[in-house]
Design goal:
By secondary structure, this protein is an alpha+beta fold. It is built from 18 helices and 29 strands. A hairpin with a 5-residue loop joins strand 7 and strand 8 (about 160). Helix 2 (about 70-85) runs parallel beside helix 3 (about 110-140), helix 14 packs across helix 15 (about 545-550) and helix 15 (about 545-550) packs antiparallel against helix 16. It starts with 5 loop residues before the first strand and ends in a 17-residue tail after the last helix.
């Protein structure tokens, strides 16, 4: 296999019973870690995440991918804290894709809640084995030995043995059972709950960090691929003569198209192979290709939106039903309705998809910025027709992901090309490739209705949502959303309303749909939180007071009682219930912190939204100023967060600051449109994202909690867009029901 030779630059206890079963690789004798240690160095390896050598160096495996969340730091922090390790003597190594580590798919805001307890188990196991080893050496009861800052101390006389002096004996001891483990109390935590800089910070700011785009291997070729501009199309004929005349171009190779739905497999196309990226890209521009555009050549977002909106106004498949909604709506003298629309979005991470692959014999080794190394391993093995054990996935840092890099099509492209040309090859997408061939966030149309009584209280709620489901990217003839998609703001609607019906209508798919940061929470929270604000206005109530009334007395939603299939993001409901009291808590906190109710100048306003997603509760208040030209600026955003136990508050704040920026982009700028089956946008000149001049002062207020940890990477996005649009209404009296916001609609008249 190749080696890299040059980098070009740069309630918690309850939760424990659930997640501790995720730990893999605990065994007698401390073997099984993929650490390349010299035979003369004694090593203590009690589980797949940890090794300690005779110098006392603690090596911890980071098995999740780092893309700015800090997870490469935070999970090892948990282990190191439970171990009583000195953080300055800890080395972090990145895991390859391997099922022995448990789930490695770093998306869905799952890393912390899935692996907080396994990391504690790993650390506590090693600590107790080291304490037992010290007891053997000193010939004293283990109970008299206590770990303290990278050493074991005899509690009676103060004798100390550093970790390194204990590894040889510790490696011979049996691993304690889970029931025998003793965990540190929170009062003894050194790192958990405290701000700790990420381990890669220095390398990142000084340009030494290795991202996928930095990797170079010996003998590597460079590839740029022309793909059909319409999803499902394929090459009819091509002429490579002019491409081959470009200096540096060595050959032109066809990649067969994958029939739709293509899943994670390559789209196919014509690859230009060269001795540098620039030559490959220039040669690609010289290709002459005739395309068969396939079944999606007539896809057009204007007509498709109209179809989705028409479907949303018709009865759909009921996914939640309580009481008699039709009678309540028919008998109401105050019947409110509204339609909402959210477009396709592209991920647009700063680092485009890129992968290096080297196929030799029957084995393939890859280097890539992937969120999903096990998924990449499976996909590469499938497209090559080799066993997964013959595929190695090396994970670099990711220059942004947002869900795009959980799809390994670009890695499979590199693997296929390497086999075909008999050399290592680097596939680098352009920004135009990334925008035009993405796994897009789903377009969505929604229709909501409510009935209000004489006091303005909601007595009925009807919600219809229509969108192409993600599963349509993997399976044919899928037109309805899954329970996992509908749980994101529809079936988990938290308001205390007697009559409720939620429906899902069918939508055919015409592009690749995929996970995008916070997924269907974006459109569905936009509709639900915006409509709640509309109800407050119709009732003549302050929006926060009205939300308190809607939420009602604190309670936990009983999904069995209302007949709802609720996956709860993969977590057990007895550990992570949907608790409206916690929603009320973040709502009250953000109201206190945001200067809600204080006067503002003309054409300025504040808006509020509150939403639970990925097991975390978030409320946002956004302050907007709308110019007479219709342009919206955002001076300030306040976000209140209840994500349960916080591992690293600095990272939580950073994630919610970033989520705020992404939410602003979703609301004000970003929009993917399609005509004749082809994406009309190509780069940041026409696919707009939030830039520094729109960046607000963002205040993140974290609720102190002993609840099990929830997700952090995604929950900050959904409430931002509705809070912005509710603030625009407060400033101008004009409702925004379709994204992105159209400034022409907001011009002063």
């Amino acid at each position: 296999m190749s080696t890299i030779v040059n980098m070009s630059r740069r309630d918690v206890a309850k939760g424990a019973a659930f997640v501790s079963g995720l730990v893999l690789g605990f065994h007698i004798g401390g073997r099984g870690l993929p650490f390349a240690a010299a035979a003369t160095v004694s090593r203590f390896e009690p589980n797949v995440y940890l090794a300690i050598d005779e110098t006392g160096l603690v090596t911890i495996v980071a098995h999740r991918s780092e893309m700015g969340t800090g997870i490469r730091t935070d999970l090892p922090l948990v282990l190191a804290d439970e171990l009583e390790a000195d953080w300055s003597r800890v080395k972090i190594v990145q895991a390859q894709g391997d099922p022995k580590y448990g789930d490695q798919n770093t998306d869905g805001s799952r890393s912390t809640w899935q692996f907080y307890q396994p990391m504690r188990v790993a650390g506590a196991t090693a600590r107790q084995m080291l304490e037992a080893a010290a007891g053997q050496i000193w010939r004293v009861p283990t109970e008299q030995c206590r770990a303290e800052h990278h050493a074991i101390v005899h509690v009676s006389d103060g004798r100390r043995l550093p970790f390194g002096d204990l590894v040889e004996v510790a490696a011979t001891l049996p691993v304690p059972s889970g029931s025998a483990l003793r965990f540190k109390p929170p009062s003894a935590w050194r790192y958990v709950g405290h701000p700790v800089p990420i381990v890669d910070l220095g390398d990142i700011v000084q340009g030494r960090a290795t991202y996928g785009i930095d990797v170079v291997v010996p003998g590597m070729k460079y590839a740029s691929i022309e793909r059909c501009p319409v999803y499902g199309g394929k090459v009819e004929t091509f002429d490579a003569a002019d491409a081959l005349k470009v200096p540096g171009v060595e050959q032109v190779v066809a990649i067969p198209a994958t029939p739709i739905p293509s899943g994670f497999n390559p789209l196919g196309g014509i690859a230009v192979i060269a001795d540098n990226t620039w030559a490959a890209q220039q040669g690609r521009q010289k290709l002459k290709i005739e395309w068969d555009y396939g079944p999606n050549a007539s896809h057009d977002t204007t007509s498709y939106r109209a179809d989705l909106e028409a479907t949303a106004r018709q009865a759909g498949h009921a996914v939640r039903q309580q009481g008699d909604v039709d009678s309540a709506l028919a008998s109401s003298t105050n019947h409110i309705s509204a339609d909402y629309f959210v477009p396709y979005y592209a991920h647009a991470p700063m680092e485009v998809p890129v992968a290096i692959a080297h196929f030799v014999g029957t084995k393939c080794e890859t280097w890539a910025p992937t969120q999903n190394p096990q998924g990449a391993r499976t996909t590469v093995a499938q497209v090559l027709g080799v066993p997964e054990t013959d595929v190695t996935i090396n994970v670099t840092l990711l220059g942004g992901g947002f869900g795009r890099k959980s799809k390994p099509d670009y890695i499979a492209e590199a693997a296929l090309l390497s086999r075909q040309i008999g050399a290592p090859v680097k596939v680098t997408w352009t920004r135009e490739d990334e925008i035009r061939h993405d796994y897009y966030h789903a377009i969505c149309a929604q229709h909501l209705e409510a009935a209000l009584d004489g006091d303005g209280r909601a007595t009925a709620w009807l919600h219809r949502t229509v969108f192409p489901p993600i599963e349509a990217t993997f399976q044919p003839n899928v037109t309805y959303g899954s329970a996992g998609e509908l749980q994101q703001g529809v079936t988990d609607m938290p308001y205390a309303i007697a009559n409720v019906r939620c429906e899902n209508g069918p939508a055919a798919n015409h592009v690749r749909i995929g996970w995008y940061r916070s997924v269907y929470n974006i459109p569905q929270a936009f509709a639900v939180c915006s409509f709640a604000d509309e109800l407050a206005a119709a009732a003549g109530k302050d929006p926060i007071e009205y939300l308190r009334q809607l939420l009602g007395a604190p309670r936990q939603l009983d999904f069995k009682a209302i007949g709802v299939d609720y996956p709860n993001y993969g977590a057990p409901l007895d550990v992570y219930p949907v608790d409206t009291g916690r929603l009320r808590g973040v709502l009250d906190l953000v109201a206190r912190k945001s200067e809600w109710g204080q006067p503002l100048p003309p054409r300025q306003g504040r808006g509020v939204a509150v939403h639970r997603s990925f097991l975390t509760y978030v409320a946002a208040v956004v302050h907007v100023a709308v110019g007479t030209d219709g342009q919206t600026t955002i001076p300030r955003v306040d976000v209140a967060v209840d994500c349960g136990l916080v591992i690293n508050p600095d990272r939580v704040r950073a994630q919610f600051e970033g989520a705020t920026i992404m939410g602003i982009g979703n609301a004000l700028y970003s929009n993917i449109t399609v005509k004749d089956g082809q994406i009309e946008q190509s780069n940041f000149g026409d696919y707009l994202v939030a830039r520094t001049d729109i960046t607000p002062s963002t205040n993140v207020h974290i609720v102190e909690s002993n609840a099990p940890p929830g997700g952090v990477g995604e929950p900050g996005v959904p409430p931002i867009a509705p809070a912005i649009c509710n603030a625009i209404y407060a400033a101008t009296g004009k409702r925004i029901r379709a994204l992105p916001v159209d400034p022409a609609h907001l011009k002063a008249t």
